[in-house]
């Protein structure tokens, strides 16, 4: 079964329901050569994963470039994939002594141009503001988003790690619909279910992207009793359904009506394939709540 596309009706746009994340690309024990990255992109495409989640800062500002070298060598890939990238985090270094955020129009424009150059593409499908900037000016941001879209350099803008009020503030002055809010969410980080983040997605008609879906791998190397019990429950359901624990885990995200889009972080080709097959193992409402209960260590009220 191929990973399906998920539609963003307000944007006349779709991406694969699972997205491949580039944060850990440079940590792959098999390397980050053009050949290895090409193999990973091909594996994703073979299973219907056509969307890749970058950020300017990933891999010490080098992962966009590593990926771009693959697109340069295999330009036919460009029409088969969708590229998401992010901007706004400024890491300390020779230019700045202090880590900070920059959502000024000059910096957003500079970052977009730099990502286009490094990725070797003419247009970015999606650009997200990586973190909410306490100094962000929604009027200035909207103006530059609009200008860049009109120039044909970016198709859609969105945000990441925004609270509901931050999202609403920006959306209230930006004429086009923001495409997503990419947030941390997993069995070990369930706040977006309860703090209004996913309610807002339904209300505004977008699909949230969710990062660290395996809690950075912690689901599979549990440290506490609760974490161990969570993995055991995933394994019990997997045995009952004749699949693997990771497939149950990824299936858990699919029940939510907001249409959550997990961003995969594994560098392992077999684990990419396994995740892609999660659609064959739907969970019942009771199974969904059982996993929530065991992971939170308490039943719902
Ligand atoms: N917007 C943001 O602020 C933000 C922040 C963080 C991440 N992200 C995005 O989200 C993506 C995913 O985040 P993530 O990398 O933290 O995802 P993740 O899946 O939660 O963590 C990946 C880690 O878990 C391990 N892992 C995954 N599946 C496993 C399995 N079945 N068994 C054992 N270990 C497993 C991986 O090791 P192996 O490689 O060995 O499988 C890897 O070390 C990133 O690439 C990035 O695109 C966005």
Automatic annotation (TrEMBL):
Domain NADP-dependent oxidoreductase: 17-288
SUPFAM superfamilies in the cross-refs: NAD(P)-linked oxidoreductase
InterPro entries per UniProt: AKR_Detox_Biosynth (IPR050523), NAD(P)_OxRdtase_dom_sf (IPR036812), NADP_OxRdtase_dom (IPR023210)
A Pfam family assignment: Aldo_ket_red
A single Gene Ontology CC term: cytosol
PANTHER family (alphabetical): NADH-SPECIFIC METHYLGLYOXAL REDUCTASE-RELATED (PTHR43364), OXIDOREDUCTASE YDHF (PTHR43364:SF1)
UniProt protein name: Oxidoreductase
Organism: Leptospira jelokensis
